[in-house]
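Weekly puzzle thread! Below is a chain. First person to post its structure in token form gets bragging rights.
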Amino acid sequence: MLILGMILLGMIAGAGAQLVMQRGTGINWPLALVTGLIGSFVGGLFVSFLAGDGLELRPSGILGSIFGAVLVTLLWDWFRNRGAMKPEDTPRPHI
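Winning reply:
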């Protein structure tokens, strides 16, 4: 039951991260699951330990989960878009 709760919290954190960033494309649920789980693990643990809550489920860990999911989503968007050519980067023909 704990694993299902962690997956659900991860999806909620990932969806919250996409809503916070206002991506405009709606919620990508597979991306929300992955970024939420990774962000929950990293951000939730970090903020919980800073607040002194340990591994208990507290509001500080939930906020840290959303913050971590936002960071992971930003990194994902940067990694995906870093190789994309922009219209102003297209090569011009030499005359």
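Puzzle host: Confirmed. Bonus trivia for everyone else. The mean pLDDT is 75.
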